[in-house]
Structure formats: structure tokens, C-alpha cells
Write a structure and sequence with these properties.
The chain is an alpha/beta fold. Helices cover 47% and strands 16% of the residues. A hairpin with a 4-residue loop joins strand 4 and strand 5. The structure holds pyridoxal-5'-phosphate. The site of pyridoxal-5'-phosphate (PLP) has 16 residues, from helix 13.
Length: 496
């Protein structure tokens, strides 16, 4: 299988090249030239397999240049019972009629980002070996909170790699911040910026394609790569869990082979929902893709009007991992909806950087609306959704998952569509203790770990051990820089 860039379809590279490079030199994103097909027979076969075996089968369709044993090694090292609580790796909780929460947060950092970022370091080092790369790989990460920690945990002390993470100083939860600033590992660095996620992501993306830095790197026998979902190696593992979730529903007799399901995803950078779109396109019987946003509802407006307009106020919400106005992976969807037209992508993204907006054609909007529904909710509605699921079903959701639950309710009320739905549950509630607790009762203490105790008492659910351990962990990183200093900071940190 070969890969092309969304901004240059004449690119023809292998998956190992796409994964080591992360982003295409002209700024486009790598996508497969053709998507492999999964038939209902395939799904039936996969249903009898373990998560790791399903992953090997699906990944091998895309990573055709990886030796089989290499891929098996990657998968078996990444998805272990030890790291993910059980060898099921993900869990499905049925909450109410036809509503299934796909819990993707049983990994080391308690958010769905682990599903990809536990595997990516293995894919990346295997890719480097395949393409004969002996350069040191420097991973630059912009994070809205969860990617940073998951990437740090995945790449810490991985030979031949270094990782630098930038996060918005005032844009992450206290637990997210604590997770990152206490990170262990000899090859890791963490830095806060005065700015939001979009500032961090834009700066990091431009560093990847900076010619002058590129020269300096070459001299130092180093190269950049990305652990953000602009890297194909980060997106691919996410396709696996949608296929796997369908298999699980089948195996548990919740659905029959071929039955349609809807998928609802709390969305920020458009990576997670794009993986569901690819799973649908490959042949998994998925009907509607429900794109849930918080008050930063740029995607809701886009789906409803066909106009993507980033010129709007940026809000800091209680679902910080979705506080994003420039959703990088939308570029891959646009490319696909325009039947792989790089020139259309270039035109639209030129317009986005020059005027802050673009509008898709009528026919593309129609294709979009046949498959995607967009909805949003604010913090009060998010909290109300947490309270309702908890009181009615005893099910405790984090703030991001709650956005999805609320938008799904709205969708169902509006359309009457009762198709079984898989709602992506993207984080453990204890990552956002203050907001989750205040949704179900008034907190007594301001202290984060006191609030954790309050939430334990209120919910009867235990927090993950790895979060509790952070209480006494030593802070290693306290650097704070202005957003226009990201490039010079990278140069310093990597001694370029
Ligand atoms: C990253 C994240 C999201 C958004 O996912 P995208 O792939 O960026 O759309 C939602 N919820 C949580 C908890 C996250 O960490």
C-alpha cells in the first residue's frame, strides 16, 4: 500500500516513510492511496479474536511494508493486560437502551490517546529501521492536555528518540498538568506556553516544514516527527477500535452481523471521528457519524453550513481537550470528499490561512451531510448530562464523554433515529475531578486530591492508581514561554 499527501497526490511513499516523516514537506497530511476493504465475513472472523489479533489483522492491511513478525511484536508490546487493566484493552458499557459507551481510557494515562500512543513509538522505531533511518527522531507535540501525557509515557526512554511537549498554560485540567510536569524519562521535555492549543499546534506544524531548521537538523543527524494525529501512525490504531467495537457488539449478541450502528464522538482535532469515518468506508456497517463539540463549535457550524470559519472567540471549557478551532484532520476528510483532489485542498487551506475561512461546494456539503451530523453543548449542559447519567444509571462520565452523550440525545430527539449507537468514551472521570464532582454535588474542598476523595464517596468508584500516585510525585518541569518563542525553545532544547 502506498501513501500520498493531501496537498500532492504525486507523492508515493510507503507507510514506514509516512510514519517516520509525520507530515508531508509541503504541509499536507499523508493518507493511503486506497482504503482496504473489510467484508462482513472478515468481521465475523475478527469477532472470535482477541483485541491484539484483531489489531494485527487490520493494521497489516495498511502497513504492507512491515514484516509480519515485526508488526506482531509492536502490537503485543503496546497492548498488554498490564498497561490496559485487562486483555480486552477497551471496554463497552451498555447504558440504557441501544446506547453503548466504548471506553477507550483503560490505558496508562487514562485517556483514549493511549490507544494510539502506546503503539506509535513501536511503529515509529520499526518504521525507522525499515527505511534505514539512523537519525535521532525528535518528536514535537502540541497538546490540549491528553496527547502530551500519552506521548510522553509512550516515548519515555525509547532509544533513538527525544520528545518535547508544548501545552497551553491555562488550558489544561490540574490533573493533566500534574501528569505532564512530573513526567519521568531522560529524553523528555515539557513546556507551557502563554497561548492556546491552536497557537501551539500552528507553531509546531510550521517547525516541521521549516527549511532552515531542517538544515540544522540534518547536520546534527536528527529529524523531526509528530505524535499528533497529523501522523498517520497515530490515526491508524484508532481505526482498529471501531472495527473491534462492532465485533464486540456482535459477539455479545447486542447486534446481528450487518446491522447498522451510529457512532458519536466528542471531537477536537477531528482525529478520533475521522478514524470512525475510515472504518465506515472500509466496510464496517456504520450509518451516521455524530460529531459532538463543546462551546468551541466550529465543526458544528461547518457541518451545518458548509463554511469553516475560525474567526470566532476561543472559549476555555471544562472539556479542555476539545478546545480547538483549527481541526487538523478535517483536511483528510475534505480531501476524501473532493475525491482526492489536492488542488481543492490547497485552495481551501490557502483561503483558511489568508482569510480565516473556507466554504465547500454544494455537492461536497451534501456528501458531508449524508454521513455526518454536527451538534454542540455548553458547560452547563455538559454537567447536566453527567448528573443525569449518574443519577439514572449510576454511570460516571468525564466531561468530554458527556458532551458526546448530550449531543447524541439531541440528535435522537431531533431525528427519532434509534439505531444502536457507539459513544466514544474518551477519558476517565478522575482526570477532570473538579468538573465531574461539581456536576453531581457541590465540592467541599478546593484541593484536588480532597475532591478525589469526595468523588469516591459520592460515586463509589475508585480512581486509577496511576493518578493517585501523582499526589506525591515531584514536579520536574516548570518552564513557561511566550507563544512566539516555541521555535527558539525547540532549537535550544535540541541544541540546534
Ligand atoms: C483528544 C481528546 C478528544 C478529542 O479528540 P480528537 O481526536 O482531537 O477529535 C476528546 N476527548 C478527550 C478526553 C481527548 O483527550
Amino acid at each position: 500500500m502506498k501513501y500520498q499527501s493531501t496537498r500532492d497526490i504525486h507523492t508515493k511513499i510507503t507507510s514506514a516513510q509516512a510514519i517516520t516523516q509525520g507530515i508531508s514537506p509541503e504541509g499536507g497530511l499523508y493518507v493511503p492511496k486506497e482504503l482496504p476493504v473489510i467484508t462482513l465475513d472478515d468481521i465475523e472472523g475478527l469477532a472470535d479474536m482477541s483485541y491484539t489479533d484483531r489489531a494485527c489483522e487490520i493494521l497489516s492491511l495498511f502497513l504492507t511494508d512491515f514484516p509480519d513478525d515485526e508488526l506482531v511484536n509492536c502490537v503485543n508490546n503496546a497492548y498488554t493486560e498490564e498497561k490496559f487493566e485487562s486483555d480486552d484493552i477497551t471496554e463497552i458499557s451498555r447504558v440504557g437502551e441501544n446506547r453503548y459507551f466504548l471506553e477507550l481510557w483503560h490505558g496508562p494515562t487514562c485517556a483514549f490517546k493511549d490507544m494510539a500512543l502506546q503503539l506509535l513509538p513501536y511503529l515509529l522505531t520499526a518504521s525507522a529501521k525499515i527505511v534505514n533511518n539512523n537519525k535521532e527522531i525528535c518528536i514535537l507535540v502540541a497538546t490540549s492536555g491528553d496527547t502530551g501525557k500519552a506521548a510522553l509515557e509512550g516515548f519515555k526512554d525509547v532509544d533513538g528518540t527525544r520528545i518535547v511537549v508544548f501545552y497551553p498554560a491555562d488550558g489544561v485540567s490540574p490533573m493533566q498538568k500534574r501528569q505532564m510536569t512530573t513526567q519521568a524519562g531522560e529524553n523528555v521535555q515539557v513546556c507551557a506556553i502563554n497561548g492556546n492549543f491552536d497557537d501551539a499546534q500552528t507553531a509546531v506544524k510550521s517547525i516541521f516544514t521549516d527549511k532552515e531548521l531542517g538544515e540544522k537538523l540534518k547536520k546534527g543527524n536528527k529529524m523531526f516527527s509528530s505524535a499528533n494525529s497529523i501522523n498517520w501512525g497515530r490515526l491508524l490504531p484508532q481505526i482498529v477500535y471501531y472495527v473491534s467495537a462492532y465485533c464486540d457488539l456482535l459477539k455479545d449478541d447486542e447486534i446481528e452481523l450487518g446491522d447498522k450502528v451510529n457512532v458519536c464522538v466528542p471531537t477536537g482535532n477531528f482525529g478520533n471521528i475521522l478514524a470512525a469515518y475510515y472504518a465506515k468506508k472500509m466496510g464496517v456497517p456504520i450509518n451516521m457519524l455524530i460529531c459532538a463539540s463543546n462551546k468551541n463549535n466550529v465543526l458544528t457550524d461547518f457541518i451545518n453550513t458548509g463554511k469553516y470559519d475560525k474567526k470566532r472567540e476561543f472559549y476555555t471549557t471544562i472539556s479542555p481537550s476539545m478546545d480547538i478551532l483549527i481541526s487538523s484532520n478535517l483536511e483528510r476528510l475534505i480531501f476524501d470528499l473532493y475525491d482526492s483532489s489536492a488542488s481543492e485542498v490547497i485552495k481551501l487551506y490557502d483561503s483558511l490561512s489568508k482569510t480565516g475561512e473556507f466554504t465547500v461546494s454544494e455537492s461536497v456539503k451534501e456528501k458531508l451531510n449524508n454521513q455526518f451530523y454536527g451538534g454542540c453543548c455548553d458547560d452547563e449542559q455538559t454537567k447536566a448530562a453527567i448528573k443525569e447519567a449518574f443519577e439514572e444509571y449510576g454511570y460516571l462520565m468525564d466531561t468530554h464523554t458527556a458532551v458526546a452523550a448530550k449531543v447524541y440525545e439531541d440528535y435522537k430527539n431531533k431525528t427519532g433515529d434509534n439505531t444502536p449507537v457507539i459513544i466514544a468514551s474518551t477519558a476517565n472521570p478522575y482526570k477532570f475531578t473538579a468538573s465531574v464532582l461539581s456536576a453531581i454535588e457541590t465540592p467541599e474542598s478546593d484541593d484536588e486530591f480532597e475532591q478525589i476523595n469526595e468523588l469516591i464517596n459520592a460515586s463509589g468508584q475508585q480512581p486509577p492508581k496511576q493518578l493517585m500516585k501523582l499526589k506525591n510525585a515531584k514536579q520536574r518541569f516548570n518552564m513557561l514561554i511566550e507563544k512566539d518563542k516555541i521555535k527558539s525553545t525547540v532549537e535550544e532544547m535540541l541544541s540546534l
